[in-house]
Amino acid sequence: MILNSMIVFIYILAFLGNMLLIVLIWEDSRLHTPMYILLSQLSLIDLTLTSTIVPKMASNFFTGKRTISWIGCGIQSFFFLMLGMSECLILTLMAYDRYMAVCSPLRYPTIMSPRFCLQMVAGCWTGGSISSLIHTIYPMHFPICGSREIHHFFCEVPVLIKLSCKDTSVYQLVVVVTSIVLLVLPFSLITASYTLIFLTVLRMNSVKGRKKILATCSSHLTVVSLFFGPNIFIYMTFTSSHSPEQDQALSVFSNILTPLLNPLIYSLRNKEVVAALRKLMGRSVAS
């Protein structure tokens, strides 16, 4: 009872925090830049992701009906995968944006134009949707011969695989390969981007500029580590190598706690976001 109440409370805080960050970015014209547009998309993904999981989980607990329809399970799995894959791509684009801003500042306004930024965002959502649709439909057709009890608090691919009485070793390899493409490759690109950024920062003479860049980059790197760490463990290892309890603990951290931490990480260490918040609060008090 206490644990579920805490999760609902965290969900509400995460939802409000991400919603506030989206409002600040779209209300303040000074934040209409590629970096903050991508950040608003990250917040949109986080609040939608938690809304895909927590309300149904809380409803099941408080009503005592811990059930979900097969179609509902598929829909939940689709949105969870779509949002997770889209977040992976958005984080990669945020690293690329910082790389261009720091390493190629003269070319940055030309390359990172608003049109190109919107095209990148659309590509992230489209890529996440297509990949999610494939990885939702296929495992949903695996035969289930025994119990349909899910040892998890929401539906996702590793859970559906464990329910099947069919040999799923080939599909598990497909999941690992897909994870390499959607997790390891983006993580490698992010690592390469920040390696080049840090090398550029070390050659800078301005101490103030160096601190500003490092503050921005450290916020993004913290979010990257919170996202990629648990997901690489869950999706890049075979489902038999870790227990349901480990999956549940990592899922709570990655999908419920992290969306709460993300807006705090980006707002508390970002003077532009804090200034936008003060401006919004000032207008609210004045009105």
Could you explain the architecture of this structure?
The chain has a single domain (1-279), classed as Up-down Bundle (Rhopdopsin 7-helix transmembrane proteins). By secondary structure, it is mainly α. The protein contains ten helices and no strands. Helices cover 81% and strands 0% of the residues.
How many discrete structural domains? 1
Architecture per CATH nomenclature, i.e. the level-2 architecture: Up-down Bundle
Oligomer status: single chain
Say what the CATH topology is: Rhopdopsin 7-helix transmembrane proteins
Strand content: under 5%
Distance between the termini: 41 Å
Provide the CATH top-level class.
Answer: Mainly Alpha
The biggest sheet, with number of strands, parallel, antiparallel or mixed sense and barrel status, is:
none
How many strands in all? 0
- Give the radius of gyration: 20 Å
Mean pLDDT: 83
Encode the helix/strand succession as letters: HHHHHHHHHH
Helix coverage percent: over 70%
From the helix content, strand content and strand pairing, which structural class follows?
Answer: mainly alpha
> Helix count, per DSSP?
10
Tertiary shape: globular
- Unreliably modeled segments: none
CATH superfamily placement: Rhodopsin 7-helix transmembrane proteins
Keywords summarizing the entry:
287 residues, Rhopdopsin 7-helix transmembrane proteins
Chart the SSEs and their pairings.
Layout lengths: L1 H26 L6 H30 L6 H34 L4 H4 L2 H27 L16 H7 L5 H34 L4 H29 L8 H25 L2 H16 L1
Helix pairs in contact: 1-2, 1-9, 1-10, 2-3, 2-9, 3-5, 3-7, 3-8, 7-8, 8-9
Protein name: Olfactory receptor
Subcellular location: Cell membrane
InterPro entries: GPCR_Rhodpsn, GPCR_Rhodpsn_7TM, Olfact_rcpt
